[in-house]
Amino acid sequence: MRQAAQSQLAGHGFKLGPRIECADGEDPNLRDALRRCSPQTRLAAREFRRTGAVEHLPAIIDGVIEHYVDPDVRTKLKSGGDSLRLVEDLAIDSLTMLEIVFLAEEVLQISIDNEEVRPFRTVGDVKGFIVSKIKGNGYPWPHAGAGKPLLGGKLNTASGLPKSAAATPSA
User: 78-91, pLDDT tens digit by residue?
Assistant: First the structure.
């Protein structure tokens, strides 16, 4: 998304400046983007940016989704795992999904095409896709990630993610 904005602005004679880090090492753009997310989400995003370790992605994705779902559904998200359906269980509509994608693009510094989002049916689909995208692997659809480890360890059969990667780290 930043690259797209940079390209559009460059066409009009503008240029985005370099990213500025705060004294505590946190990117103010990242802090601003995740200001309404949990501290665990912000910490995972900061660590992902620092290390590039995919182990932080499940916590980031859960936090980004949690940010956009209704408060009464958030408990379901925390206890439901990767098999939760985006539309039926979490009441995520197409506009909300776009907002989730835009925030994920900004936080993870990746680009996601609209066509890539269409097959998403579960939280596990989103996690599996983003992990594959970050690692540079393809993610064949539908639900081809089930039964295939992406991060190592025991599998979560709903998404193909290891059970340890599907759980969010405690504060």
Answer: 888 899 999 999 99
